[in-house]
Structure formats: C-alpha cells, structure tokens
Write a structure and sequence with these properties.
five-stranded antiparallel beta sheet
Length: 174
C-alpha cells in the first residue's frame, strides 16, 4: 500500500489574509513519546506551535522520517512508509533564510492522518495548516526581519473607511 500526504502551509498576515510561507522546509517526525502525542493531537493548534530548541532537535534526530520543501503556493507532498501510516506524526517547519542566524525550527503540530482511498493500492491524506497571525507576525518580525503593515484609508469626501489590501503593503526592512 502507498500512503501520500498532500499538504499546504501558510501564515496569517491578518485575521483574514494568508500568505504561503516561502521557502518552507517541512520535517516529518515520529512522535518522541507516543502517549504524549495522542494528547497533543487532541490539543488546539494554537497550543502546539512552539520554537524547537537545539536539545530537542538532537533528541528527535533519529525520529525524522522525511524532509520536503513547499512550492510557491505553500503546497508540498510526501510519501509515508506503510509501517508509519497508522500512528500520529509530528510536523515541524524550518525557516532557513533567516538573516541573523543559520536557521530556526518550529513545531507546528502533531496529527493523525485520516486516510482516503485513491484506488486499490494508493491512500492519501490532505492536510492544511495556517499559522495564526499572532505567531506568524512574531516569527516574521523577530526571526525574519520582515514586517507587514496593515492599515485603513479614510475617504474624507465620502466619510467612508476602507481597509487596504495587505498584499500591497508588505515590505522587507533591511
């Protein structure tokens, strides 16, 4: 049997505006402690996102199953060995284009794939993850030195308040 996970990773710039996280290296691990993974899997996403320390990276290095890189839309896919398809997986994000440091790694979540049959021998799971604006704005500002300015325009003649599109106001501060 073949098991393939189709994923998408983006970050919220604002409450209703997302952007793919580029470049994204996604790391798929077996959970460090399976019992803890079941509880973590049930936790809310906002409770699982966290910085991964060097000690934790070292502790988990033998549990790494695969690394994949997302495309310009934040999409990625990977195949999973059948022996790992029935349990939870840890998913981490590595930002390796950080100007001040070599790379920074974040644990996104632990999830248990819900498999669907594509045909007799192929199974797939669709997984989408959006980092909340609270976390993604912090990551961009603190680690990536990238800032998003969100604003409103006031049409003085019509006394009409308009929200400006966020994508037009993204800027890199160097």
């Amino acid at each position: 049997m073949n098991y393939k996970i189709n994923g998408n990773l983006c970050g919220f710039l604002w409450e209703d505006t997302t952007k793919p996280i580029l470049p994204s290296e996604i790391l798929i691990y077996l959970p460090l402690q399976r019992e803890q993974a079941i509880a973590t899997n049930a936790a809310k996403i906002k409770e699982t996102f966290r910085f991964v320390t060097n000690k934790e990276k070292y502790t988990r290095k033998n549990l790494l199953l695969t690394k994949v890189v997302s495309d310009e839309k934040g999409d990625f896919e990977f195949s999973l060995d059948e022996k790992y398809a029935k349990g939870p997986l840890d998913i981490d994000l590595v930002c390796s284009t950080v100007p001040r440091i070599q790379s920074v790694q974040f644990h996104l979540t632990t999830f248990n794939p819900q498999w669907h049959k594509a045909n007799e021998s192929d199974n797939y799971c669709d997984w989408k993850y959006s980092i909340t604006s609270k976390w993604w704005c912090y990551v961009q500002g603190h680690y990536l030195d990238a800032w998003v300015i969100c604003n409103h325009l006031l049409n003085c003649e019509a006394h009409h308040l308009m929200r400006m599109p966020h994508s037009q106001h993204e800027m890199q501060i160097s």
